[in-house]
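Technical appendix A lists one of the benchmark inputs used to test multi-chain prediction within the project. The record comprises two sequence entries:
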Amino acid sequence: MTTNLSRRPEPRVPASAPALEVRGLVKHYPGVKALDGVDLVVRRNEVLGLAGENGAGKSTLLKALVGLVRPDAGEIWVRGEKVRLGSITDAANHGIGMVFQEQSLVPNLTAAENIVLGSEGPGVRHGIYRWNTLRRLAQEQLDKIGSHIDPLARTDSLTFADRQMVEIAKVLRIEERTSHPPVIILDEPTSVLESKEIETLFTQVRRLREFASVVFVSHRLDEVLDVCDRVAVLRGGRSVGEVPAAEAAPAELHRMMIGSTGSDDHYHGAAAERRDEPRRPRLVVRGLSGRSFRDVDLDVHAGEIVGIVGVHGSGREDVCRALFGAEPTTAGDVVLDGEKLDLSGTRAACAAGVGYVPAERKTEGMVGPMSVADNMTLTKQKSRCTGPVVRPGKQAKLVDGWIERLSIRTPDRGTAIQRLSGGNQQKVVLARWLVAGDVRLLLLDHPTRGLDVGARSEVYRLLRELANQGVAMVLLADSLEEAIGMSDRIVVMSDGRATTEVAAPTGDKPTPLDLVKEMV
Amino acid sequence: MSTPVITTPAAEAAVTGRAGVGRRLTSFMPVIALVVLLAALTVADPGFLTLNSLTAAARTSAPLVVLAAGATLVVLCGGIDLSIAALCSLATVFFALWLPDAGGLTTVAVIAATAAIGAVQGVAHVLLRIPSFIVTLGGMSIFSAIALVISDAGPIRVVDRDATHWLTLYVGGVVPMAFVVALLVVVVVSLVLRLTPLESWIRATGYSESAARLAGAPVDVVKIAAFTVSGACAGLAAVMLVSRNFSGSPTMADNLLLPAVAAIVVGGTAITGGHGSLWRSLAGALVVTLLRVGLPIVGVPSAYEQILYGAIIVAAVALTLDRSKVLTIK
């Protein structure tokens, strides 16, 4: 394991300085330390892999590198020169460009127009487009990466893989802004590619190395090891080390990613309190199909937590939403406690005792400007009404009771929920399903996303308590560690299908590696 | 258990504090504007602050209050209803045409018809997933044209004045009945919202439609209901206009669209949805009415009125818009 992070190379010779260096980068968000002193070195003409679990700080780091996030502390050096990156343009001027996970091309323009968009250079004279020059510029970019895409093809007529090539060609325009070799960042470039397309991408990445430095981010560890020269690992917003790719195994990387602190003990401890009596099946899903998933079978018993794990694009989020009536299905039967579940809309699901905690808490989970009380009673309006009439006293008593029971820290029930910390917001969102006491199935999409450690363990305890009371749960965990710790059973999804099921009883938990093997 | 109570370090708390003061200020803004305007007009013309002119102002304001109150519901849901004035004009024509046959039931029939038309717009907005701005802009054009066609492009005299006579009475000899009815509309609708889950649903829909939907709120029904009430209000406002003008005309209410939108935004109801109330629109409508009757007093030709409305709308939205909610300003 080589580390040259402690080196303080001032004064340095620019010629030998790394292409990009990050020192002690810190970024706080309310309630979360996204970056907690990250160090990173990107050498010239190398492909650096960046690995880390969700929430390890990868995306924040990348955003800081292209000027989309302003760090609270720390330094960014480009070729031996300290820089401040205030915008994407700043970063481009220093030769740093990024191919975004969500593609950033304008679909109704041609590939050529997209490539030169925003960096037209000699393609625009006196405010007038010079089409021939633009096309030539675009063709040069495509030639650079050896791509045979027709520059005049409309972008939305290209395959996803081709569009990615266009993005790479576009990003390489930053070469025009600086005489130095550029640094190209690829954020999860393989997540939606077929295996053959991935091979093409890797060829491209190796070609880029000839004249640029590449930062490559992927969830799939085997890919990272395949294409990278070196892999740096982030955990909890810190750099935990780096390994030469040639010497490392996925297992070793994974150990670094999740740490060996045994921090999942508390799940086990809590789980040990569980009653282990025979349970009746509560949710039975057969052959459920939709846009991004096919033929999914799933059983969840009362009081059981079933985790679904899978890489980005496995379709697990959509299965969750489909069970709540928020995502259309094309086939399949869903039975809840012996009755067919109506999947036509969210209201029907709520009425049947199904609850859903969305991953995007701030935009989908809660209504930010509304009070804690109104958020908590938004779904089960009957719980605060007599007939059709709202009874403020009834609501106050109910809400105050749950605030106390879940130790929700809020000045009072009338406070706008957006003023609470993430953990307390999430407890209010969970309470929404509990106030009426009729919830039978809870669908949890990343219920601990963006929460700090303390808030997480409170949510874990609450979920465990609910399971003990007989609520069935489907959990899409934030990390494998969380899925293993919390779940009684784990279903692995891959490419829209439920491929494997792994038992995860207390005392006999699978390791993250067992699951990773099934996921990829 | 180390969850902090409030999200933040001091910096953000300060921002929240300032927003708090700002919010409190904007919530009193329409009332402050009302008082300032009254004072200014009294200074400009000491004869203004008399029972007679106030009664006249209240009578003039009634249709505007009703129109603005209905459209406020749509705005609270995060949409906009641009068709209210055209629908109101159409309704005056309906009234004039139907009165000979329907007699005393005409008022009810007109309001039912406009409510149904509002509902159709709501259904188009929800089911076809067309922005409310477009649906009601199209509606505005369609209703205007229908009004022109069925009225032969001219005013229709209302001879039988019994059906609207009640609106021209005065309660206690001073308060115009039309204004009382307008107040009742605001009170009743506000109460229904406050006393039922509707307010919760409307606010959630306006603040964050996806969150409301995922919480199981009946978003579609709420939106259609808002358009229906907005349509019904346009019908009621039409009856008020007919009671004053003794005729129905295909363009009678057309100059009320801008004042109604101005009333809503001056009242401080967020054009992005969620935040606001009918009470605010009532205050806003009174401000707009005072400006309208006050301009000639201070010697501004009434031709300049429209400039004022345009400026008021832009300025009021500029002051109250929560830009953090609007990702791209379109």
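Chain A touches chain B at residues 28, 30-31, 324, 326, 346-347, 349-351, 356, 358, 363-370, 374, 377-379, 381, 385, 388-390, 407, 409-411, 419-424, 432, 452-455, 458 (CB under 8 Å). DSSP finds 18 helices and 24 strands in chain A. Comparable benchmark entries are summarised in Table A2.
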